[in-house]
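Case study 2.
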Amino acid sequence: MIMATIIGMAIVTMVPRFIPAFIMEKISLRPWLNRWLNAIPFAALGALVFPGIMTVIPEQPWIGLLGGLTATIIALFNLNVIFAVVGAILTVFLLTM
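Prediction:
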């Protein structure tokens, strides 16, 4: 019974994830809608990262903002994301010493 429940939950979870993949390759979207949909991951990432930037040190939010600014500047040079992360970490580390 438990195994049937697990398999059933897996199927119920997988179906809504697979259906859009098969439908979207057959549908042609307008360019503005496609650009808007492509921007959603960046907006979600910003919504997840920004509160963390502000709470690195709650009493001094400017330290987190400078770390985020450092990561943004490094990212504008189209370097690998690991360099942006390490740059932000180093900035926050040096400012908290």
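The two ends are 57 Å apart (CA to CA).
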